[in-house]
Specification:
The chain has helices at about 85-95, 110-120, 140-145, 155-165, 175-180, 185-200, 210-215, 220-235, 245-250, and strands at about 10-20, 20-30, 35-40, 60-65, 105-110, 125-130, 255-260. The protein is an alpha/beta fold and about 270 residues long. A 7-stranded mixed β-sheet has the order 1-2-4-3-5-6-7, covered by helices on one side. A hairpin with a 2-residue loop joins strand 1 (about 10-20) and strand 2 (about 20-30). Helix 1 crosses helix 2 (about 110-120), helix 4 (about 155-165) runs antiparallel to helix 6 and helix 5 crosses helix 8. The longest helix is centred in the last third of the chain and has 17 residues, at about 185-200.
Length: about 270
């Protein structure tokens, strides 16, 4: 199916969520329609106007927001007070601030992770889940994507991704990149950020999309995307234990849910090990 026609927001704003962070949000579609909150990927990917077009604007009150530190939220690329549970509470604060009542959560890749995390804590505020390319942020998924599994499918791109690291650091790719992405030398941070973001963009489609790779390799985007993503992955999503989200599924098993595995046309691939 084609996407719905382009639309512009009827409201934009900046919400103070505490800890020095302000998050950008916007509303489009029908102000009296069914509320849906779109949860973008990454973490750190930010929103894009095309994401408004996933929803019938006559039926939905469409809410997009940029998660802490990325997109139009401030401060840019900030890792302080930036965890999964901060974002979960941000979604809840946004829902209450906009007076949305029960909401549909729509998320892909990391967005599906955040949707499940929110539902595990605030299930009574969720009407449905629409999850694309589910990513549970388990160690096996991260090991597959960064430790060589995905590299078997994209060998040339993976070789470039590893080139930044000396051989003795390649046993812990996420940790090695995280140290560079949090280094005091901004030039070193940006260099690592571009390569991290380029690897993700290069693997997000079966056939290399050079326009997408170029766009995701821009320093302004890649600094936030790579720093925030590596921060979350290095800290295992800030979950209590590996597989935490799977343990929470019984809490939300009664919710209507649609799961989509397939084509993805925005920024980030699902990191699930198939």
């Amino acid at each position: 199916m084609p996407l719905f026609p382009p639309i512009e927001p009827y409201r934009t704003g900046s919400l103070d969520v505490g800890d020095g962070h302000r998050i950008y949000f916007e509303e489009s579609g029908n102000p009296h329609g069914k509320p849906v909150i779109f949860l973008h990927g990454g973490p750190g990917g930010g929103t894009h106007p095309v994401q408004r077009r996933f929803f019938d604007p006559r039926r939905y009150r469409i809410v997009l927001f940029d998660q802490r530190g990325c997109g139009r939220s401030t401060p840019h690329a900030c890792l302080d007070a930036n965890t999964t549970w901060h974002l979960v509470d941000d979604v809840e604060l946004l829902r209450r601030t906009l007076g949305l009542g029960k909401v549909q959560l729509f998320g892909g890749s990391w967005g599906s992770t955040l949707a499940l995390a929110y539902a595990s804590r605030y299930v009574e505020n969720v009407s449905e889940l629409v999850l694309r390319g589910i990513f549970l942020l388990r160690r096996s998924e991260l090991d597959w994507f960064y430790g060589g599994g995905a590299g078997n499918l994209f060998p040339e791109e993976y070789e470039r991704f590893l080139r930044v690291l000396p051989f003795h650091e390649r046993g812990d790719v996420i940790g090695a990149y995280y140290r560079r992405l949090t280094h005091s030398d901004r030039a070193l941070r940006l260099s690592a950020a571009v390569e991290w973001s380029r690897w993700e963009a290069s693997t997000s489609r079966l056939l290399l999309d050079r326009e997408l790779v170029d766009r995701c390799s821009l320093p302004e985007f890649s600094e936030a995307f790579a720093r925030i993503e590596a921060h979350y992955f290095y800290h295992a999503g800030f979950f209590e234990r590996d597989g935490y989200l799977l343990e929470q599924v019984p809490k939300m098993a009664h919710l209507p849910c649609v799961i989509v595995q397939g084509r993805y046309d925005v920024v980030c691939p699902a990191k699930t090990a198939y």
